[in-house]
């Protein structure tokens, strides 16, 4: 979402606004300004790397083993899917407390159709997503058009959909799913290009991802220069691309030495790419940021707030259905207590990843990093044999500190004005 800078009368333009040449050759002060402006997002990446390194040391490298990295991705994939929808809800200034119950309900629906009634696994998948869509329509109507706060609507939904889950399953667990259904969350693509003790296909996909990231970053840089916006120096840009590329290829190398490319990673990549583009480049994405940033201004600008809010919750319902399919596939069944506390993990991922409690701030990529931080912490503590109660304490403190950091930044920015 683009924004304009308004200066008090008589205040001179700064260097980044005075001439195109200044935008082309950003000085040290401009780079410092860029880093300060994006401190929250930049800091989360540094924290992510630091946490990975910490648990690598504490677990004697076990946390970075190919098998463990694959397991982390599989075990937390459904939380990352929920985090994509949750960060959009939070950016708009709302919250959704019902997603865990919706995951349980959609998984139960799929299990009843596929396991009990013997229908094809594709029918179960479509039915689960369809139920998620209906849930989104239901909650979106009450929030957007009736005007009930999302906290109340989704709190009611958390109870309502959990009760419906118990009714659908008749208070019993159902398993197992057929192999094709299980493959969605537990399957791998490997051996497609041959290999020499590792999966070549996974490395090729990793390399293509790095190239795509570099091209996208370069195009964004050129566009910012064209509009005379401050950019990082070219050496710093190259260093960032090389750093990200090294991390991605190291990750791909580990996967290639395990079981290959997880199918669920492809699903995640498609969702991240689609929603990242939507939030950054589409009218809908800009409207979501506008509503969360300043509701009154968005209304005065002609944004149909009710319509956008309605579709935000519809989208959250659909993604909850997708997460329900992945979770039931991963667990090879449906249980009445499935999805318990998933909403808190998704909310924590969004806030740790940079979303603001007041709305208007947050990115899909940031939510993914926040979710991965929670995943790495949970996995690392499990490998160390840390008690579950201590794990909960640590997660709670991390979430509290992330939100406190956001509040501190806002107060500092307000004082600077």
From TrEMBL:
The way it spans or sits in the membrane comes to: Multi-pass membrane protein
Primary location recorded for the protein, binned into one broad class: membrane
Entry's NCBIfam families?
Answer: GguB
GO MF terms here are: transmembrane transporter activity
PANTHER family reported in the protein's UniProt record:
ABC TRANSPORTER PERMEASE PROTEIN YPHD-RELATED-RELATED (PTHR32196), XYLOSE TRANSPORT SYSTEM PERMEASE PROTEIN XYLH (PTHR32196:SF32)
The record lists the membrane-crossing segments as 44-64, 76-95, 115-135, 142-161, 196-216, 237-255, 261-278, 308-327, 347-377
Name recorded for this polypeptide: Xylose transport system permease protein XylH
- Write out the annotated subcellular location: Cell membrane
To which species is this protein native?
A: Kribbella voronezhensis
Role: Part of the binding-protein-dependent transport system for D-xylose. Probably responsible for the translocation of the substrate across the membrane.
Under InterPro entries, the record lists: ABC_transp_permease
**Keyword terms of this UniProt record:** Cell inner membrane, Cell membrane, Membrane, Sugar transport, Transmembrane, Transmembrane helix, Transport
Keyword tRNA-binding set for record: no
List the record's Gene Ontology CC terms alphabetically.
Answer: plasma membrane
Q: Where is this region: Disordered?
A: 1-25
């Amino acid at each position: 979402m683009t924004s304009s800078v308004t200066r008090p009368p008589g205040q001179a333009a700064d260097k980044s606004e005075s001439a195109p040449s200044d935008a082309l050759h950003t000085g040290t002060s401009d780079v410092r300004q860029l880093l300060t402006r994006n401190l929250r997002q930049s800091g989360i990446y540094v924290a992510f790397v630091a946490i990975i390194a910490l648990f690598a040391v504490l677990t004697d490298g076990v946390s970075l083993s190919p098998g463990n990295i694959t397991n982390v991705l599989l075990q937390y994939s459904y939380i990352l899917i929920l985090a994509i929808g949750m960060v959009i809800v939070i950016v708009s200034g709302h919250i959704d407390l019902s997603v865990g119950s919706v995951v349980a309900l959609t998984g139960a629906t799929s299990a009843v159709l596929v396991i009990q009634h013997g229908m094809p696994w594709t029918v179960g998948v479509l039915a689960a997503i369809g139920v998620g869509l209906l849930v989104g329509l239901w909650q979106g109507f009450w929030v957007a058009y009736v005007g009930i706060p999302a906290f109340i609507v989704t709190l009611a939904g958390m109870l309502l959909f959990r009760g419906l889950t118990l009714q659908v399953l008749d208070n019993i667990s159902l398993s197992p799913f057929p192999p094709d259904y299980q493959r969605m969350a537990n399957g791998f693509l490997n051996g497609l290009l041959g290999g020499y003790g590792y999966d070549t296909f996974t490395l090729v996909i990793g390399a293509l991802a790095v190239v795509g990231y570099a091209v996208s970053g370069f195009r964004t840089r050129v566009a910012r220069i064209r509009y005379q916006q401050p950019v990082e120096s070219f050496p710093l840009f190259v260093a960032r691309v090389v750093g990200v590329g090294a991390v991605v290829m190291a990750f791909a190398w580990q996967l290639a030495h395990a079981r290959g490319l997880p199918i669920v990673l492809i699903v995640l990549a498609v969702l991240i790419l689609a929603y990242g583009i939507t939030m950054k480049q589409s009218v809908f994405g800009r409207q979501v940021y506008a509503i969360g940033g300043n509701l009154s201004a968005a209304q005065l600008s002609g944004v149909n707030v009710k319509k956008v809010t309605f579709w935000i919750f519809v989208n959250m319902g659909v993604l909850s259905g997708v997460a329900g399919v992945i979770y039931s596939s991963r667990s090879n069944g449906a249980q009445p207590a499935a999805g318990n506390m998933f909403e808190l993990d998704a909310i924590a991922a969004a806030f740790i990843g940079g979303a603001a409690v007041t709305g208007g701030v947050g990115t899909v990529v940031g939510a993914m990093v926040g979710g991965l931080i929670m995943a790495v912490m949970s996995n690392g503590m499990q490998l160390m044999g840390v008690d579950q109660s201590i794990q909960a304490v640590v997660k709670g403190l991390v979430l509290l500190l992330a939100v406190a950091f956001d509040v501190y930044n806002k107060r500092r920015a307000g004082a600077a004005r």
